[in-house]
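Team,

Forwarding the record for the chain on the shared tracking sheet. I've put the sequence and predicted structure together so nobody has to dig through attachments.
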Amino acid sequence: MSEVDVVIADACVPSATQRRRVAYVVSNELAKVASLLPSNLNRSLMVHSLAKAFGLLSPRPELRLLRPIPAKMSDLAIYHTREYLDYVLSHKITPHSNNGTDIHVELGLEEARFPA
Protein backbone atom coordinates (compact mmCIF):
# COMPACT_ATOMS: atom_id res chain seq x y z
CA MET A 1 0.00 0.00 0.00
CA SER A 2 1.35 3.41 -0.94
CA GLU A 3 1.35 6.45 1.33
CA VAL A 4 -1.54 7.91 -0.67
CA ASP A 5 -3.58 4.71 -0.20
CA VAL A 6 -3.04 4.88 3.56
CA VAL A 7 -4.13 8.55 3.72
CA ILE A 8 -7.28 7.81 1.68
CA ALA A 9 -8.07 4.73 3.79
CA ASP A 10 -7.59 6.71 7.02
CA ALA A 11 -9.86 9.48 5.72
CA CYS A 12 -12.63 6.95 4.99
CA VAL A 13 -12.66 5.44 8.48
CA PRO A 14 -14.36 7.61 11.10
CA SER A 15 -12.47 8.16 14.34
CA ALA A 16 -14.03 7.26 17.67
CA THR A 17 -15.31 10.84 18.01
CA GLN A 18 -16.68 11.10 14.45
CA ARG A 19 -20.05 9.76 13.38
CA ARG A 20 -20.70 8.51 9.89
CA ARG A 21 -23.28 10.52 7.98
CA VAL A 22 -25.85 8.63 5.95
CA ALA A 23 -28.13 9.91 3.20
CA TYR A 24 -31.33 8.07 2.28
CA VAL A 25 -33.32 8.93 -0.84
CA VAL A 26 -36.88 8.65 0.39
CA SER A 27 -40.19 8.78 -1.44
CA ASN A 28 -43.20 6.50 -1.17
CA GLU A 29 -43.84 7.03 -4.88
CA LEU A 30 -40.26 6.06 -5.82
CA ALA A 31 -40.45 2.92 -3.67
CA LYS A 32 -43.75 1.92 -5.30
CA VAL A 33 -42.50 2.51 -8.85
CA ALA A 34 -39.17 0.76 -8.22
CA SER A 35 -41.06 -2.22 -6.79
CA LEU A 36 -42.81 -2.70 -10.14
CA LEU A 37 -39.57 -3.51 -11.94
CA PRO A 38 -39.51 -7.24 -12.70
CA SER A 39 -35.98 -7.56 -11.34
CA ASN A 40 -36.96 -5.73 -8.13
CA LEU A 41 -40.48 -7.03 -7.51
CA ASN A 42 -41.77 -5.47 -4.25
CA ARG A 43 -38.24 -5.24 -2.86
CA SER A 44 -37.93 -1.44 -2.70
CA LEU A 45 -41.31 -1.03 -1.02
CA MET A 46 -40.44 -3.72 1.53
CA VAL A 47 -37.04 -2.15 2.36
CA HIS A 48 -38.59 1.32 2.64
CA SER A 49 -41.39 -0.02 4.87
CA LEU A 50 -38.92 -1.84 7.12
CA ALA A 51 -36.68 1.23 7.46
CA LYS A 52 -39.73 3.28 8.44
CA ALA A 53 -41.11 0.61 10.84
CA PHE A 54 -37.79 0.28 12.68
CA GLY A 55 -37.57 4.05 13.12
CA LEU A 56 -34.49 4.31 10.91
CA LEU A 57 -35.95 7.34 9.14
CA SER A 58 -36.52 9.34 12.32
CA PRO A 59 -34.73 12.70 12.35
CA ARG A 60 -31.17 12.47 13.69
CA PRO A 61 -27.94 14.42 13.10
CA GLU A 62 -26.15 11.67 11.16
CA LEU A 63 -29.09 11.01 8.79
CA ARG A 64 -29.95 13.17 5.83
CA LEU A 65 -33.25 12.41 4.09
CA LEU A 66 -33.25 13.40 0.42
CA ARG A 67 -36.17 13.72 -1.98
CA PRO A 68 -35.48 12.15 -5.37
CA ILE A 69 -34.92 14.42 -8.35
CA PRO A 70 -36.35 13.12 -11.64
CA ALA A 71 -33.58 12.26 -14.09
CA LYS A 72 -33.38 13.87 -17.49
CA MET A 73 -32.97 11.73 -20.61
CA SER A 74 -29.31 12.78 -20.82
CA ASP A 75 -28.79 11.55 -17.24
CA LEU A 76 -30.37 8.18 -18.02
CA ALA A 77 -28.34 7.83 -21.22
CA ILE A 78 -25.10 7.91 -19.23
CA TYR A 79 -25.90 4.44 -17.89
CA HIS A 80 -28.60 2.92 -20.12
CA THR A 81 -28.57 2.16 -23.85
CA ARG A 82 -30.84 4.09 -26.19
CA GLU A 83 -32.70 0.84 -27.04
CA TYR A 84 -33.45 0.20 -23.36
CA LEU A 85 -34.64 3.76 -22.74
CA ASP A 86 -36.81 3.82 -25.86
CA TYR A 87 -38.46 0.57 -24.77
CA VAL A 88 -39.10 1.31 -21.09
CA LEU A 89 -40.23 4.88 -21.72
CA SER A 90 -42.69 3.87 -24.45
CA HIS A 91 -44.19 0.73 -22.83
CA LYS A 92 -46.16 0.22 -19.66
CA ILE A 93 -43.86 -2.14 -17.77
CA THR A 94 -45.60 -4.15 -15.07
CA PRO A 95 -44.48 -7.23 -13.15
CA HIS A 96 -46.43 -9.47 -15.54
CA SER A 97 -46.21 -7.64 -18.88
CA ASN A 98 -44.67 -9.98 -21.44
CA ASN A 99 -42.29 -11.27 -18.80
CA GLY A 100 -39.73 -13.62 -20.29
CA THR A 101 -40.14 -12.56 -23.93
CA ASP A 102 -36.96 -12.18 -25.96
CA ILE A 103 -36.92 -8.38 -25.72
CA HIS A 104 -37.45 -8.49 -21.95
CA VAL A 105 -34.61 -10.96 -21.56
CA GLU A 106 -32.36 -8.98 -23.91
CA LEU A 107 -32.98 -5.75 -21.99
CA GLY A 108 -32.71 -7.36 -18.54
CA LEU A 109 -36.37 -6.81 -17.69
CA GLU A 110 -37.24 -10.41 -16.98
CA GLU A 111 -38.23 -11.34 -13.46
CA ALA A 112 -35.21 -12.21 -11.34
CA ARG A 113 -35.64 -15.50 -9.58
CA PHE A 114 -33.99 -15.86 -6.19
CA PRO A 115 -34.09 -18.93 -3.98
CA ALA A 116 -36.62 -18.65 -1.16
